[in-house]
Design brief:
It is built from eleven helices and 13 strands. The protein is an alpha/beta fold. Helix 3 (about 50-65) packs across helix 4 and helix 8 (about 220-240) packs parallel to helix 9 (about 260-270). The chain binds oxa(dethia)-CoA (UT7). Oxa(dethia)-CoA binds next to helix 2, helix 6, helix 8 and strand 12.
């Protein structure tokens, strides 16, 4: 039976860096607080005229080239995003057109910061079912566009960027070994943006007046559930595939807070030198954190053939998940 293997990766981030020192001038915060509470030193910020789908296309071209395919080889494009270019149509359709991937069905999904992992689960299932062979999975966000720069508790966290992953059908012992995804909608208010949907449409005055078109988060509550939930699902995928944490070469978690990453690593017994962390340079780019970090480690030659990579993410929904991949 076929399953999915990661055949190529790519990333594109805006050149403009927003440092903690610059945020000190915007909100009542300090570089010291941000670094010690989150691990973030700087993040990327899209320019006024920048369009997210252009960044996603650049990351996708790199992933296709690395994987030896051209856009017309794609049968599926999955885009994980909470910040598409526009609500309708899906950003995946815009990307499909810009790439010229005429044979690919393309759609977006919103699983918050777990979006890339949800996409990995779906792509692997489609490939196993024989419904897809060459899937482009993108995580792309312009989170600074939805960050409230009057709210110091959230605006310091977010950054912009896009990562792409090419998944190919394989019968080899490489690729996706196990995935699991979970949801708890009872925690919907932990991380949310109440406005710009159908309850508070963008064209109603209260959406603007009550600042409903910005991301809101209950940070402390989210932190605790995130650590517990990601640890649980990591253990599940390891158990299901017959591996122990000591077999894992790299833990690649969603980059929301380096204290969360350390806590998950500690609970699993995976030391920090085997945890992939780049939050200090990009902040939280939601669904893009994992594919961006993956691409960095692949291109730097740190990830090698045969490595066992444990992915995990947690985000708005609440959503979370884990995946185990043999490189
Ligand atoms: O990506 C999706 C999933 N997201 C997450 O997993 C995020 C999880 N949460 C977190 O990463 C952390 O909860 C935060 C980084 C968001 C906040 O860190 P915290 O240690 O939980 O801080 P806190 O919210 O408990 O606030 C502690 C103090 C408060 O002051 P008082 O009440 O103790 O006087 C806040 O007002 O820190 C204050 N504070 C700040 N101070 C300086 C909050 N934000 C800031 C800030 N600068 N930017």
């Amino acid at each position: 039976m076929y399953h999915a293997a990661i055949a190529g990766t790519g990333r594109a981030v805006p050149p403009t860096i927003l440092t903690n020192a610059e945020l000190e001038k915007i909100v009542d915060t300090s570089d010291e607080w941000i670094r010690t509470r989150t691990g973030i030193r700087e993040r990327r910020k899209a320019g006024e005229g920048d369009v997210l789908s252009d960044y996603a296309v650049e990351a996708s071209r790199q992933a296709l080239e690395a994987g030896g395919l051209v856009p017309k080889d794609l049968d599926t494009i999955l885009v994980a995003t909470v910040t598409p270019d526009q609500p309708i149509p899906a950003m995946a359709c815009l990307i499909q057109n810009k790439l010229g991937a005429k044979k690919a069905a393309a759609w977006d999904h919103n699983a918050g910061c777990s979006g890339w992992l949800y996409g990995l689960h779906v792509a692997d299932a489609l490939i196993q079912a024989g419904k897809a062979h060459n899937v482009l999975l993108i995580g792309a966000e312009f989170l600074t566009r939805l960050a409230d720069y009057t709210d110091r508790a959230t605006c310091i966290l977010f950054g912009d960027g896009a990562g792409a992953t090419l998944l190919k059908a394989t019968r080899s012992d490489h690729g996706v070994l196990a995935t699991t995804i979970r949801t708890d909608g009872a925690g919907a208010s932990f991380i949310c943006m109440p406005g710009a949907g159908s309850v508070y449409p963008p064209n109603r005055p209260e959406t603007y007046e009550q600042r409903l078109g910005f991301i809101k988060m209950m940070g402390g509550e989210t932190f605790k559930v995130a650590v517990r939930s990601m640890t649980d699902v990591c253990k599940q995928v390891l158990d299901e595939s017959g591996f122990a944490a000591s077999d894992v070469t790299w833990l690649l978690p969603h980059q929301a807070n380096d204290r969360i990453i350390t806590a998950v690593g500690d609970r699993l017994g995976i030391p920090s030198e085997r945890c992939i962390v780049n939050i200090e340079r990009y902040g939280n780019t939601s669904s893009a954190t994992i594919p961006i970090a993956l691409d960095e480690y692949v291109r730097e030659g740190k990830i090698k053939k045969g490595d066992l990579i444990l992915f995990t993410a947690f985000g708005a929904g609440l959503t979370w998940g884990a995946g185990l991949v043999r490189w």
